[in-house]
Amino acid sequence: MRLEGFWTKQQIAEAYLNLVSFRGELQGVGAMSRQLFGKWPYGLDERESALASALLRSPNAAPALVVKRACMLLKEMNRASECTGLGSFAAQALSGALGAAAPATGEQLAPHLARQLLTEAGKAVRSSLDADLQGFARDALRRHLSALHRQNVEDGAVLVLDNDSGEILAWVGSSGDLSGAAEVDGVTALRQAGSTLKPFLYAQAFEQRSLTPASLIEDAPLTLDTGNGLYAPQNYEPNYKGWVSARVALAGSLNVPAVRTLVRLGPNQFHQRLKQGGFASLKQDGDWYGYSLALGSADVSLLMLANAYRMLANGGRWTPLRATPGKASSPRPVAAKGCAGVFDGLPPAAATRRPAPFWSATFWPTATRGPPHSASNPGWRHPTGRPQKPAPARTCATTGVPATRGAIPWLSGSATPVAAQCTMSPESPAPPGLA
């Protein structure tokens, strides 16, 4: 009765099946299914399920008794015909012969997304994933993590999107056997966004005419009085650059200018913009997060973040992502005038919308820190004022810098197309932003 005060009956049943002892030292329905039948629980047929149920009553009962009880269950289910040959089948299963003889499970390309899509046993589902790109993204992630192993980078995730249609082309939730928690889906798992939210902050400031890319912001020690005491943001590097333009502040991912920009806008306004951009994990209001929201104190998922950067690539028009082929949703503007041209330093009326890049890719390593790069559109200019060559077709969401088709030293250390560097993971049946 006390359990029912905290858990639902479904949760109690799930905990029981995951902890109950089966034959020998097997604990939990997953271990039992793999060891006795050589398959995962969702693949058990009626005979195998009946045998497993019979073992609950007496895990180490003699095979004949287990067969008798399983046959009784099958008859109650009007499946008496399944009792034929059940004795020999049970003898093989209980001896471990089926589990030992079962072929090793082939390496799955997208196990995390498969768990999201396969909601009905035996039902075939066609996904939007590109098998070649999925395998390439997985291998690229593993190579990159191996290179960063000595820097305590433990895992990562990759997500590749089609900017135009919103289809998911690659979903790598973890590095597999290189990870200590391979079942955790890094694409849907929540973690602090860090500096990846700064492009949205400056975009809103540009849109509201609070700043322009040439506006000067002071990068100097700052102390703000909050309801919980004093808040003193600091840059990643222990120095300050004085007066810098908004363009330079964003390109250098400077923390203090970002906080000063949020002071201009107000935490609630920025919070509302993030919610409009698909960040459904921001459950509290802007004042609850405070000025640290400019530095990414809120928890977001890679799925939300990548789609938000896709929104920037599409001129401020947001649509949900799709993991299955189909018709794209009608885009809705994040604001009345969208975000087109905000990184060009042009008024929205004069800005001309460029074709959206075809790729949106995100690489999200775990357990590491470093100053992220700036985010921008093809019209971004280097702080020196030198015009940069427009990005050919791809955008790196975590760093936001236009990527070239060649090598990306800060990402992989080798000539790897950016489209292969991406991430994702399943925590709930329907992650926010996934249609």
Question: How would you characterize the overall build of this protein?
Answer:
By secondary structure, this protein is α+β, with helices and mostly antiparallel strands. It folds into 2 domains: 99 residues, Penicillin binding protein transpeptidase fold; 235 residues, 3-Layer(aba) Sandwich (Beta-lactamase), CATH 3.40.710. Helix content is 31%, strand content 10%. The protein has 14 helices and 11 strands. Strands 2-1-11 form a 3-stranded antiparallel β-sheet, sandwiched between helices. A two-stranded antiparallel ribbon has the order 3-8. A hairpin with a 2-residue loop joins strand 5 and strand 6. It starts with 8 loop residues before the first helix and ends in a 70-residue tail after the last strand.
